[in-house]
Amino acid sequence: MTKVALASLNAADEAGFMAALGEVYEHAPWVAQAACRQRPFGTIAALHAAMMAAVRAAPADQQLALIKGHPDLAGKAARADAMTQDSKAEQASAGLDRLSEDEFAHFHRLNDAYRTKFGMPFIICVRRHGKDSILRQFEQRLQHDTASERRTALTEIFRIVALRLDQRVAAADQLKVHGHLSTHVLDTHRGAPASGVAVEL
To answer: What is the sign, positive or negative, of the torsion defined by CA atoms of 82, 84, 85, 89?
Structure first.
């Protein structure tokens, strides 16, 4: 995906801004429209903050509509290839497009249980998880109350959007979405760190 410079977004007309960021919040262009009116942004962090503030300031029913605009994980929309490109790529990153029939059925049962209890889809930033940790979160969060799950859903949406902005916008700063992994392999024969070891994730 080609990134657009933050300076270009600041200088763009509303149509250009919306073309770049209108779908960052799933099926909720009103968030980008609210941010558009607050330009210019000095940093990508300020842009992200303005978008989050617009969501937090929205009425509860509009927040709920935002949550409901997201697809179920490994749900019918995924099987029908009816998701946005962002959601499709995100679910694929956790292997949710390669489930066995039993795994798909398990996700289907959890999706139904969650929707029955909370009246909204289960939302999690799948790029921060693997299939097993998503299932653990599903089971844990089914024990929560509706108010806390709505707050959690919005928090997860903000994480999803941070990653989407990171992929779309080039700026002098960076959002804190990149983790670090170090690997130390000891050559026990020499008693020193091993060299030339390939590590595959």
So the answer is: negative
The tokens describing 141, both together, are: 């969060």
pLDDT, tens digit (0-9, with 9 covering 90-100), for 61-106:
999 999 999 999 987 766 667 778 898 888 888 888 888 999 999 9
- Three-class SS state of 198: coil
Distance CA(138)–CA(198), nearest Å, equals: 34
User: In Å, how far are 7, 137, 147 from 179, measured between CA atoms?
Assistant: 26, 20, 30
Q: How far is CA 91 from CA 58, 68, 77, 113, in A?
A: 27, 17, 12, 20
Residue 180 has pLDDT above 70, yes or no: no
pLDDT tens digits, one per residue of 20-68: 999 999 999 999 999 999 999 999 999 999 999 999 999 999 999 999 9
Residues recognised as catalytic: 70
Q: Read off the amino acid at residue 182.
A: S
**pTM for the whole thing?**
0.85
Domains and CATH numbers, the chain: 4-170 (1.10.3330.10)
Distance between CA atoms of 197 and 201, rounded to whole angstroms? Answer: 13
